[in-house]
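Box 3.1 A note on notation
Throughout this textbook, protein chains are presented in two layers. The first layer is the amino acid sequence; the second is a token string describing backbone geometry. Keep the layers aligned when reading.
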Amino acid sequence: MHNDLTTLDTPAAIISLEKMQRNIARMQQRANALGVRFRPHVKTTKCAEVAAAQRAAGASGITVSTLKEAEQFFAQGETDILYAVGMAPHRLAQALDLRARGCGLQIMTDSVAGAQAIADFGRQHAHAFEVLIEIDTDGHRSGIKPDEDALLDVGRVLHRGGMHLAGVLTHAGSSYELDTPAAIAQLAEQERAGCVRAAQRLRAAGLPCEIVSVGSTPTALEAASLEGVTELRAGVYVLFDLVMRNVGVCREEDIALSVLTTVIGHQADKGWAIVDAGWMAMSRDRGTSKQQRDYGYGQVCTLDGQPLAGYLLSGANQEHGILSAQGAPDTDIVNRFPMGTRLRVLPNHACATGAQFPQYHALAEDGTLRTWERFHGW
């Protein structure tokens, strides 16, 4: 057990408890104001203690991105779990096993073939899976468009096949590409309207559709109305990151995750300090490179978390990071960041950076640290 940031080995993933709790409260208040239940996506942290904090604030159930997450959170006592990735036929046996053990697992599909596989497997095992149909409201990735014929085809295959057609779900992932409140609010309305439209079409065709689930961190924070929606989902909001800062839904000071690192050398003629956080610590995610402000591999901060304007992790090898000033090289880099200096680096993508570490170190306001294990793998 380490008492504070000055003795912890580096690199290490640090979660600021104060910032995390503030972020959790902000999103829960949004969901409450919009009149919907909030089901956080736990893939960002994959951490039982974080999920417990979300639940304590008022969240109901969780969203997962792997069945291993479902297994691990179920083992922690969570039963209301949505697996929000298209269900592959080979995973149905594992999903059935979870449900047989008392996990209220919901699964998802966006094709007739997927629906048929679920219905066939369910009938073979005399089990009615709880299934949502994924809706594409922004052309981001997967799903059925709200007005496609396939929507009703999938619904009928599930319903007539004896499955529980639970509802519809969408994720406006293209919101990450926006950077103004007005544009995000417009997409949030598009997301809402498209998913509600899909639900209305299913109901008009005599098919059940109780759940209407929407969400991404940006659209959740900018939505003006969620009329017709029953459930809101979001994930990265709990920690935030530099991509979200560029999108405009948080400030640098809201980012709750940082990587603790140590200066291990210099290239004075190049204006570089070398740190022990390379891409194995920060991840290779360069999500800010496509945005209006490029943070390299991360924003460099002091040990107490204050951003150092103009100093970025400008390059990264596996275990080495290059700290440099933007613009002209810092000719005083050796004196500014002496050997052994401890710094913190804000990440581009909290989910990707967190995935590099087996545990988080939760930093309390008094400077003490608690170790939180992180689930990983598939």
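Residues 296 and 340 are 22 Å apart (CA to CA). The chain has two domains: 18-238, 252-373.
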